[in-house]
Amino acid sequence: MRYMVGVVLILFVGFGVVACGADNATRKNLNAREGVLTGLVKVYGDDVFIITNYRSRSRVSYLVKGKLKEKIKGLACNVVKVEGEFVRNGWSGVVRVDRLIEAEKEERCDEY
């Protein structure tokens, strides 16, 4: 009887762990989105960020990745509109830029 309870318990725990792993993998894929992102470019050392909603306290900073990173780095203190894939996690995220749509100079860049 104890053997049977032990086997059943091991099966429930084993299937539970497998199911949790599958759920987490699905959730991670749902966070990635493709689209257009607009924000202020800020450079800190080698890191380049696009900050959305930069005039409010609800800003989100996206770390720029991809082959256009150096081009965007040269657009510091500009408001850019980019197309690519981005993932947000709270107040930060990562964006892989595929295309730079437009850039416009922000006069009061140091305030943000």
In short:
The chain has a five-stranded mixed beta barrel. It has 112 residues and is of the alpha+beta class.
Helix/strand layout:
Layout: H1 2-31, E1 32-44, E2 47-52, E3 60-65, H2 69-73, E4 78-89, E5 92-105
Parallel strand pairs: 3-5
Antiparallel strand pairs: 1-2, 1-4, 2-3, 4-5
Descriptive keywords:
single chain; 112 residues; alpha+beta; OB fold (Dihydrolipoamide Acetyltransferase, E2P); five-stranded mixed beta barrel; 2 helices; 31% helix; 46% strand; globular
Written overview of the protein:
- Strands 1-2-3-5-4 form a five-stranded mixed barrel.
- It has two helices and five strands, in the order H-E-E-E-H-E-E.
- The radius of gyration is 21 Å and the shape is globular.
- With 112 residues, it is an alpha+beta fold.
- It has a domain of 78 residues: OB fold (Dihydrolipoamide Acetyltransferase, E2P) (Beta Barrel).
Outline the low-pLDDT stretches. Answer: 17-27
Globally, the shape reads: globular
* Quaternary state of the chains: single chain
Gyration radius, to the nearest Å? Answer: 21 Å
Biggest sheet statistics: 5 strands, mixed, barrel
CATH class of the domain at 34-111: Mainly Beta
| Beta strand % | over 45%
CATH architecture of the domain at 34-111: Beta Barrel
CATH topology of the domain at 34-111: OB fold (Dihydrolipoamide Acetyltransferase, E2P)
Structural class: alpha+beta
Termini distance? 68 Å
* Strand runs, count: 5
Q: What is the residue-averaged pLDDT?
A: 83
Number of helices: 2
**Strand and helix order:** HEEEHEE
Strand order of the largest sheet: 1-2-3-5-4
Q: How helix-rich are the residues, as a percent range?
A: 25-40%
